[in-house]
Design brief:
The chain is an all-alpha fold. The protein has 16 helices and no strands. It has helices at residues 5-30, 42-50, 54-76, 82-114, 116-120, 124-127, 141-148, 165-185, 194-210, 213-230, 240-259, 264-283, 293-304, 306-324, 334-357, 362-378.
């Protein structure tokens, strides 16, 4: 595990983004809305504000993904291997996605039996999330396969009740589009014919044409992370504390713009910009600066399980809201907040168990797949 300052803090950033998404969704299905409260104390304002940045956290994920995944392609240059890249990306996604889809199917079966009103959309207006009344909810085998191949939000709905799967489809197609973009427009991959370059650009255009508008905006955010990687070391020195202040202010401003009816694309691009500033500041730090070991351990493990937490928390939250609370919502008093915290911690423990069973084996599975392909290629 790397314990340098840059890696630890980017790990912490990714882990905290997953926590924000989970905290947002869990609060929505368990706690009374802020506007329904008679007492708007400063503490409660801080609590509701801190648990309202779920969508902003997804944009943070996109920027960080562009930095790490897109940056790794830039680093490889002409040594890039499409086969190795495809194996790395697909094993990374499928090792968690397949169990998460099966988990969603199991939880939805329980909901269908014990709280069918959740799946029919009876609570959607109260929670502002989850299956919608008269919506396109489906847990069919066809939708399962479509989600397995990242077609949700493009040609199919998300599988079952697992709404956060929408962003995973975007992520996959960004993974596919960027190397094609490099082939078509870049100079660092191996030389290609004019025909190959034209076909690559056409393929990128086709991908973007099928993505919804929000997916195209997300790709710009993702490319923002790539730009930070490409220009690292060339940015003017930015104090990390100042970058953090800009980021926090931008986070709040993004939330304010979103609630004020500003176009979603502008909100997302503003969030991507302040995230890029923070990532650039953190990436510019010396890799030799040490970090307190417990902090490095926490950052590492939060980052490692962030993908697992993102994919599995939502159906669990619906279970808590639909089966345990039956649509009732807790007041944010001491007992209610303690209950919320308990469920939040329980979700993290379950996510860690899920990570331990599946995601932590990603590297071994990837190596096994690569060796299998290598043997068949050589035979």
């Amino acid at each position: 595990m790397s314990t340098n300052r840059r890696d630890v803090y980017l790990d912490l950033m990714r882990g905290c983004a997953a926590l924000l998404v989970c905290a947002n969704h869990l609060r929505a299905v368990t706690m009374a809305s802020y506007h329904s409260l008679a007492d708007g104390s400063l503490f409660l304002q801080a609590f509701y504000a801190a648990t309202s940045f779920g969508h902003q956290a997804v944009i943070i994920f996109f920027v960080l993904s562009g930095y790490f995944v897109g940056g790794s392609l830039l680093a490889k240059g002409s040594a890039f291997s499409l086969r190795s890249y495809a194996i790395a990306r697909l094993t990374r996604l499928w090792v968690v996605l397949i169990p998460a889809l099966l988990l969603t199917a199991g939880i939805d079966h329980v909901l269908h039996t014990s709280a069918p009103e959740v799946l029919s959309g009876a609570y959607a207006g109260v929670w502002n999330l989850g299956p919608q009344p008269g919506g396109d909810y489906s847990a069919s085998a066809a939708v399962f396969l479509g989600n397995l191949f990242f077609l949700q939000q493009i040609f199919l709905p998300v599988f079952g009740s697992n709404d956060p799967l929408w962003s995973l489809a975007y992520e996959f197609w960004y993974y596919a589009a960027f190397p094609l973009l490099l082939v078509g427009l870049g100079r660092r991959l191996e030389r290609r014919s004019v025909m190959s370059r034209c076909l690559a650009v056409a393929a990128v255009a086709l991908i973007l044409a099928f993505l919804p508008w929000s997916g195209r905006v997300g790709f710009l955010c993702w490319l923002g992370g790539v730009a930070v990687y490409a220009m690292r070391g060339h940015f003017p020195a930015v104090n990390v504390s100042m970058a953090l202040v800009i980021f926090v202010a931008g986070l709040g401003f993004s939330r304010w713009m979103g609630s004020g009816g500003v176009a979603a694309a502008i909100v997302d691009l503003e969030m991507a910009l302040v995230t890029m500033i923070l990532v650039a500041a953190l990436a510019s730090k010396s890799a030799t600066v040490g970090v307190w070991r417990p902090a490095a351990w926490l950052s590492y493990h939060l980052s490692e399980m962030s993908y697992t937490l993102y994919l599995m928390h939502f159906p669990l939250a619906l279970c808590i809201g639909g089966i345990v609370l039956r649509g009732d919502r807790l007041l944010p008093d001491a007992a209610g907040l303690a209950t919320y915290l308990g469920w939040f911690c329980a979700t993290l423990v379950l996510a860690w168990c899920f990570w331990f069973a599946f995601e932590r084996r990603t590297y071994q599975i990837r190596q096994s797949v690569q060796q299998t392909f290598a043997r068949r290629w050589m035979s």
